[in-house]
Every structure is written in C-alpha cells, then in structure tokens.
Design goal:
The longest helix is centred in the N-terminal third of the chain and has 28 residues, at 40-67. The chain folds into two domains: 10-144, Ferritin; 176-314, Ferritin (Up-down Bundle). It has helices at 10-36, 40-67, 90-111, 118-144, 181-207, 211-237, 260-283, 288-314, 327-330. It contains nine helices and no strands. Helices cover 64% and strands 0% of the residues. It is globular, with a radius of gyration of 21 Å. It is an all-alpha fold and 332 residues long. Helix 3 (90-111) packs antiparallel against helix 4 (118-144).
C-alpha cells in the first residue's frame, strides 16, 4: 500500500471506522443468507454483496494499519451461526440488499464531500460506484421476478402552474390539497424501509436470547407498525395504494443465526437511517401535517435509539468511536 505523509482528518477516520463496523456486520448477515438461499439468481446477488463488504473491510484495515490506528473489533465469525435454521425466505434477501444499497448510496454520497486525502476519496468513490452497480443488479432482478414494489402512478401535469394561496401549506384545518409527487415519494419510501424494519425485528425477536434485547426489539417492531400505519393513512386518503408488508417472509425458526450484539447493532443502524430519512422527508414535505408528523416520529425513534445504546453499553457491546483529545484530563 502506498505510504502517505498527510494525516487523516477526523471525518476520514470517523467514516472509515464506521464503514468497517457496518461492513463487518454485513459479512455476518450475508454468510447466513448464503448458507440457506435456494434461488441461484438471488445467490449471485448475495455473493456480489458479501464480496463488496469483504473488500471494504480489507481496505479500511490496511489504511488503519498503515496509519497506526487500532483496527475495530466490529463483528466476527463469533457473531454468526451459519448452521442455524433459515430465518427469512429468499425474496426477503433481495429486498434486504435493495434497501441496504439504498442506505449505502445515501451514506457514501454524504461522506464524499467530507473526505480530502486522495486515497480516501478514491476508496469512497469506488464504494459509491460498486454500490450503484449492486443496486442496479438487485432492482433488475426484482423487476424480472415481479417482486419490485413501484411507487404509485399519478396523472401527468397538463400545464405549468404556480401556487397562489397559502392553503398549499395547510394540513390541519380547512381543505387539504392532494399530496404532491415528492410527498408521495417519501411516504412510500418510508413505508418500504419500515416494512424491512418490521420483518427484520420480527425475525430477530424470535431468536434473541436475552430478555432485555428481545423486549427492545419487540418495541422496535411495534414502532415500525405504527409508522407504517401513519404513512399509509395519508396515502389512502388520496386513494393511493400502500405497499404490502414483508412479515410473511419470516420463517418460524427460533434458532439464533446472529448474536444479540449484532442484532442490537443492526436495529440501531435502522433507527439511524430512519431518522435521516424522516429528516429529508420533513424538509421536502411543505404540507404542515406531514412536516409535523415527521418531526414527532424523529423524536420517537431518537428516544428508542438512546435506549438501545444504553443496552449496548450495559452489555459492553458498544465500541468507543474515535474522538477528540480530552484536554481537561490531559491538563490535570
């Protein structure tokens, strides 16, 4: 590996560190998927996905070793039991990869403007490019199998119009205007991500060993159901279709394929992604009832995520991320 004289910035260290933890988790998840997948086309997608995660982990490990930075523990073979019974059906594997690549595209897009050293920029650009490729392959396979869930159709605009009344922003009182195309997009997308959360937490709750972990994941399941209902209500009010849930893709297995530590981290990852999605949705939804809804849901998920962090700390599962020097301690 080429030797660099320029030190990594805080944002570069943080994003490499987070990338390592996340991809080490993905490797464990995909190992169990691959041990049970039947469909050869879906297996090819999973093999591509795990190959990318392995490449990412090895690259970050090499950078950290070169810089003298401790390599995170992340997740290892101790966090996955490939011999455990299947927990999800084949179609779920495709939906899972599709949604994780959507999250990856958003994450890498946000990382790139905040990294500076040439090798780090090239690494994250390659991550973005390879994730786009995997996203495209997964979408094509979902379409070819008739499994892709498209957002609703709306009438094409017939002419250019401008908003003339403040009622365009109304949502609580008086006449509500129909949902805009962008508002429909975010309601639909947030139902989709919560469908993934509902199926994942249902499966995880069946196999979690510790009571506090099981109870926490079950609470997440109820939050996903509640949020799906809230978003669906707005689509139904405009006679728009609602995406079907995926809980039927969960088997009846109670044998844990993953450690409680991994499942807690994964649920936390979904919580973080959900808050980010809701924040974007809120900023792009002018109708007041929608922006208020997103604000309330962000608060609810934030409290849930904090409770999850406390469980991780209690069980000594949370690795301390890189942080600034404690000057108060150093000057004592």
């Amino acid at each position: 590996m080429e030797k660099h004289n320029i030190k990594l910035t805080s944002s570069e260290v943080a994003n490499l560190w987070s990338n390592y933890i996340g991809d080490s988790m993905s490797i464990c998840v995909f190992k169990h998927f691959l041990a049970h997948v039947d469909d050869t086309e879906i297996k090819t997608i999973l093999e591509h996905a795990i190959d990318l995660s392995v490449q990412h982990v090895e690259t970050v490990k090499g950078i950290f070793l070169e810089e003298g930075i401790p390599v995170p523990q992340g997740f290892t073979d101790e966090d996955v039991n490939e011999k455990a019974a299947r927990l999800f059906e084949d179609p779920f594997y495709l939906y899972y990869v599709k949604n994780m690549t959507k999250g990856g595209l958003a994450t890498y897009g946000a990382i790139l403007p905040n990294v500076f050293r040439n090798d780090i920029r090239e690494f994250f650009m390659s991550c973005l490019s390879s994730t786009m490729e995997l996203y495209n392959e997964t979408t094509n396979l979902l379409l070819s199998k008739g499994l892709e869930i498209r957002s609703p159709d709306i009438p094409y605009p017939t002419n250019v119009e401008f908003v003339e009344k403040q009622s365009f922003l109304a949502g609580w009182f008086g006449d509500k205007r129909p949902l805009s195309a962008i508002e429909i997009t975010h309601l639909y997308a947030n139902i989709q991500t919560n469908n993934l959360g509902e199926a994942l937490t249902l499966g995880f709750a069946q196999v979690a060993k510790r009571k506090d972990v099981k109870d926490y994941i079950l609470r997440g399941l109820q939050i996903s159901k509640k949020h799906i209902e809230s978003f669906s209500k707005h689509l139904k009010s405009d006679s728009l279709p609602v995406p079907m849930p995926w809980d039927q893709a969960v088997t009846i297995s109670s044998e844990p394929p993953y450690s409680d530590k991994l499942m807690m981290y994964h649920v936390g990852l979904l919580s973080s992604a959900g808050m980010g999605n809701y924040g974007v949705s809120m900023s792009l939804s002018p109708r007041r009832d929608l922006s208020t809804l997103y604000g309330e849901l962000i608060g609810e998920v934030g409290l849930y995520a904090e409770d999850g962090a406390n469980i991780n700390i209690k069980h000594k599962w949370m690795e301390r991320p890189p942080q600034a020097a404690d000057r108060d301690e150093l000057t004592k």
